[in-house]
Specification:
The protein is of the alpha+beta class and 475 residues long. The protein has helices at 4-20, 32-47, 91-103, 127-131, 140-147, 156-166, 182-196, 200-209, 223-226, 257-260, 274-283, 292-298, 363-374; strands at 51-57, 60-67, 69-71, 76-77, 84-85, 218-219, 238-240, 245-247, 270-272, 303-306, 309-314, 319-321, 329-336, 339-346, 351-357, 400-403, 407-413, 416-420, 427-431, 436-439, 445-451, 457-464, 467-473. It has 2 domains: 4-95 and 198-374, DD-peptidase/beta-lactamase superfamily (Beta-lactamase), CATH 3.40.710; 392-473, Lipocalin. A hairpin with a 2-residue loop joins strand 10 (303-306) and strand 11. It is globular, with a radius of gyration of 23 Å.
């Protein structure tokens, strides 16, 4: 759900930043659970992380914690059974629904989707193309943004009707490229309904959630249209710069899609908890739902996601990194106004990280920090940054351009130091010592300078949510 192309680009950029700013020092093995709790508690206390997290090793949770509010307005707190909108993490469940129907002989991955939607104005698109984002089918989000009455709730049938009415050209020839498509997964949900004869909601409950004992997981996408909120539900909030607080996205015009797309299922709308997602994780090691051969295909690197990235692939509803120091990585993220979600699995060492946030926390960087802890790498724990007075004449020694995966420029304005990056607003860097500065925007980022006896910069460091990477001065 959301705007997939921009979300995917951000995800890739964050992955690159994680690699570029990987920790530098390996220390002796420590108590992972204790360090995870210290890190995440600090992120909640000082930097507003809001959500739940579960980390498991060898089939057992070693750390589970809920931090912050389920409802910022009423101050109702999260707990480890709080239910979150999963957004695009839902896609793997839709894929599983299709896999179940395939194993029952009710459809084939090679079926032309005209078999289910004879009226659709596109030829040669298969179920497999929808599963792997290789269809080229137009984005329903863009079509609805341009053509839909935003006072009405759209449902999956409306997506099909819009495709038929507009007959927009395919984004590329089917099967020749990979492009993330929410439309494809919404159509898969409609195929599940057509083939099974029951609603997507009922099919998922009967064939996935109930067999796995996922008692707090359900399809829920009607908060705006029915005004009903389930028990123990984590409402998604966005931060308002003007109000300086977290608010529901419902009242902001730029997020009006949360209302008019309220009826769409398949690309998002699975709602779950960290505990239930761990049950799903365990099921992917078994043939409780489908055969091993079907699971192997789902979790294989089927389609390369970028011509310039030889490491990133897509399976059925999941991203695949075929090789890493810890073996294959299977993951997916989700984003929708108020929510950021993530599940990452390292099946060869049986390690899992699940993070759900209802305040749009920057989860790829949390993943990087969690991995650092699990790998016994050094990590700067979060702490409260306090501004101190310094001799501002020294700031001129720090100005210039630096490179550490991205180019940053530090400049002096009105006796203060600022960070400048192309395409983003300047951010004030506030001193906590004569050589260390923290970002004035409230994020967990710092710049630290090493200087010689003459005050000249020898080296600089960028600390991003505990990850420490070197910056080289270029100008």
């Amino acid at each position: 759900m959301g705007k997939p192309s921009s979300l995917f680009k951000k995800m890739i950029m964050r992955k690159l930043l994680f690699i570029l700013f990987a920790p530098l020092v390996v220390s002796a093995q420590k108590d992972h659970a204790q360090l995870l709790r210290e890190y995440m508690t600090g992120q909640n206390k000082y930097f507003q992380f809001n959500g739940t997290i579960l980390v498991a090793e060898k089939g057992k949770p070693i750390y589970l914690q809920a931090l912050g509010y389920a409802d910022y307005k009423t101050k109702r707190m999260l707990n480890d059974s709080s239910v979150f909108e999963l957004a695009s993490v839902s896609k793997q469940f839709t894929a599983m629904g299709i896999m179940i129907l395939k194993e029952r002989g009710l459809l084939s991955y090679e079926d032309n989707i005209k078999k289910f939607f004879p009226q659709i104005p596109y030829d040669n698109i298969t179920v497999r193309n929808l599963l792997t984002h290789t269809s080229g089918i137009p984005s329903y989000e863009n079509q609805f943004e341009r053509n839909w009455d935003r006072k009405k709730i759209a449902f999956n049938k409306d997506i099909l009707d819009m495709l038929v009415k507009l007959k927009d050209t395919l984004l590329f020839k089917t099967g020749t490229k990979w492009m993330y498509s929410n439309t494809g997964y919404a159509l898969l949900a409609s195929i599940i309904e057509k083939v099974s004869g029951i609603s997507y909601n009922d099919f998922m409950a009967k064939n996935i959630f109930q067999p796995l004992g996922m008692s707090h997981t359900y399809i829920y996408n009607t908060r705006r249209s029915t005004k009903k909120i389930p028990d123990n539900y984590a409402l998604g909030f966005v931060y308002s710069d003007s109000l300086k607080r977290y608010i529901l996205p419902d009242s902001l015009s730029k997020f009006d899609m949360v209302y008019y797309l309220d009826g769409i299922v398949g690309d998002g709308c699975v709602n779950s908890t960290t505990r239930d997602l761990f049950k799903w994780d365990r099921a992917l090691y078994s043939n409780k739902l489908v055969s091993k051969s079907s699971l192997d295909e789902m979790l294989s690197p089927l389609v390369r996601t970028s011509p310039t990235d030889s490491t990133s692939f897509y399976g059925f509803g999941v991203f695949i990194q075929a090789k890493s120091e810890k073996g294959k990585i299977i993951s997916h993220t989700g984003g929708w106004p108020g929510y950021r979600t993530m599940i990452v699995r390292w099946p060869e060492i049986d390690q899992t990280v699940i993070i759900l946030s209802n305040s749009e926390s920057n989860l790829p960087f949390f993943r990087a920090a969690v991995e650092s802890i699990l790998n016994d790498e050094s990590l700067v724990m979060p702490y409260e940054h306090k501004e101190v007075k310094i001799d501002t004449t020294i700031l001129k020694n720090y100005t210039g351009k630096y490179f550490g995966g991205l180019t940053m420029e530090f400049l002096k304005k009105d006796g203060k130091l600022y960070r400048r990056r192309n395409g983003t607003p300047d951010i004030e860097l506030k001193p906590e010592s004569p050589v260390k500065f923290f970002y004035g925007d409230g994020t967990d980022r710092q710049i630290e300078f090493e200087i010689d006896n003459n005050g000249k910069v020898v080296k600089a460091w960028f600390l991003n949510m505990g990850q420490k990477g070197e910056l080289k001065k270029t100008e």
